[in-house]
Amino acid sequence: MEVDDDSLKPIPWTYKWIALACVIAFPIGSNWTNASLGPLKNTLRNELGITNAQFGVISSADSFVNSIFPIIGGMTLDWWGPNRITICCTTVIFVGASVAAAAVHLETWRMLAAGHVLMGFGVAILDQAQQKFVYHWFGASGLAFAFGLENAISSTVGMVAGMVAIPIRDRTGWYGWTFWIPAIFCGISMIINIVYVVFERVFIPKHLRLTSARAKALAENHKLNVKRIFSWRSLLGLPWQYLMLPGTQILQSGGANGFGVSAADIIRMKGYSEETAGFMSTGQRVLRIVGSPIIGWLIDRYGHRFHYVALAPLFYIIANSLIGFTNVHPLVALVFQSMAGLINGMPLNVCIPLLVADQDKLGTAFGIWRAFNNSGGTIMEVAYGVLQDGTKDMGYDKVLKVSTAIKAWGFVLGCCYIVLDHKKLGRGMTLTRQKREELEAEIEDPNSHPLTKRDVKKPWTIYTLSILVAMIATAWTLFLKYLI
Q: Transmembrane segments in this chain: where (predicted)?
């Protein structure tokens, strides 16, 4: 009974903040690498002699490999726990970043893509592990704020990396340092990861640690094969309330990149220098840095998660229209782009733990979510490159039109989610945290009330997994076609 009493006590804030400080440092190096690619697009085209489609292959390389790997990785995370998995991830990311940097010396773009593929093996699973860590340490009450703070740090790293990419190239006389610096940061992230695991194992009381499904099964003396790597039941046992998100979002992650990834190149084509374009395209992240914790706090305090999902596509549409089809200053379009990015991903990431409502399935759920996002991102990155190569003067008119069409459908989806929340989910995604917890406390049978009921519907499971297989096949086909 003593253990049970201890498990009911809240986790001390000292432990929470130390854990969060370590966890948000895990992906610093990989974030730096990805943020540097956009400003260097024109440089890479000239130095490596590649087309826009081939640049799309490089920029989507980490997404390509993670069209499948996050699902297996998510189930592995749930079964074995994230500690040992994250150390493997940060190590692989460090090796991949070093390979990418070495590729610049050899001027081999396929080796550069291979380095990003290696990084991709670790990036997506590391992201899923972060979600599990945050959900464990902060629970539903501070989830959005913690995600917001993590997004702010990530945006800060991305902003700095994007702003200094061209100055590093110009000051050192060689663009390769833009790849070696993040490789060094990847090594630092790996060390911080090891420090976190030691901190949890040595200083955190056992009842406050994140317990894996395997450890729980051993503790309960279940008769099962504890040597298995993961449980397939977690893949087939996800509720339809969650599956309706990845099953309908499909290409929305790729639609967001029509302007975002190539912002610096679009601005350069409007007559600005590469350095100025790089500063402007990454300076927009200031709004995300300041706004992410605020948006997280607002979601925790006032709810309306799906309303943000419906609002974000409108900002993307405005940004695409302004940058592509008007003569307004690029900063105006960048502000709308930044606002869209600010409120695009976080509400959905916050909704997933609430819709799954099972820590032992959370890694699998985020794995499927990442697989959908990465497949969609790979498809659209390569497609955008092909569209640009086929446009007069390699312009972005076709790219922005396709991106706008995808986001127009995203707005329709957001409105449908709001209606579905009211009719089928007990308004759980609209309610504030406090109100939702009050209602949950009054529910006598959680399996009969729409606010807490989480049931598996076979048709939804079959549909979602079928769509995922089709997207993965398409992503691999496009990637390999333009890689070879």
A: 15-35, 85-103, 109-126, 138-168, 174-199, 306-325, 331-356, 399-420, 460-479
pLDDT, position 216: 53
Nearest to 293 by CA among 151, 430, 160: 151
DSSP string, 305-374: HHHHHHHHHHHHHHHHHHHHH--S-HHHHHHHHHHHHHHHHHHHHHHHHHHH--HHHHHHHHHHHHHHHH
Q: Taking the model in full, what pTM does it have?
A: 0.75
Find, among 428, 429, 458, 431, the residue nearest to 446 by Cα. 428
What is the secondary structure of 238-249 as a DSSP string? Answer: --HHHHTTHHHH
At the fourth CATH level, the homologous superfamily of domain 12-483 is MFS general substrate transporter like domains (1.20.1250.20)
Residue in 193, 314, 186, 324 with CA at minimum distance from that of residue 259 = 324
CB 74 within 8 A of CB 360: no
Domain boundaries along the sequence of the chain: 12-483
Cβ–Cβ < 8 Å for 281, 164: no
Contact 315, 340 (CB under 8 A): yes
pLDDT tens column, 58-91:
887 877 777 777 777 777 777 777 888 889 889 9
Helix (H) or strand (E) run with residue 257 in it: helix 257-260
- The residue that leads in pLDDT, 219 or 365, is 365
d(CA 333, CA 312) in angstroms, rounded, equals 14
CA dihedral over 322, 324, 330, 331, signed as positive or negative: positive
Q: What is the pLDDT of residues 311-320, one digit of tens each?
A: 999 999 999 9
Q: How many helices (H) and strands (E) does the chain have?
A: 26, 0
CB 433 within 8 A of CB 332: no
Query: Contact at 8 Å (CB) between 100 and 115?
Result: yes
Pairwise CA distance, residues 445 & 352, whole Å: 22
Tell me if 67 sits within 8 A of 378, measured CB to CB: yes
CA–CA–CA angle 166, 171, 177 (5° rounding): 65
Beta carbons within 8 Å of 78's beta carbon, 6+ residues apart? 212, 213, 230, 231, 234, 360, 361, 362, 363, 364
pLDDT digit string, tens, across residues 367-389: 899 889 889 988 988 898 889 88
| CB-count burial class (<10 Å; 0-12, 13-18, 19+) for 405 | middle
Amino acid (1-letter code) at residue 100: A
Amino acid type, 442 = E
C-alpha 235, offset from chain centre: 20
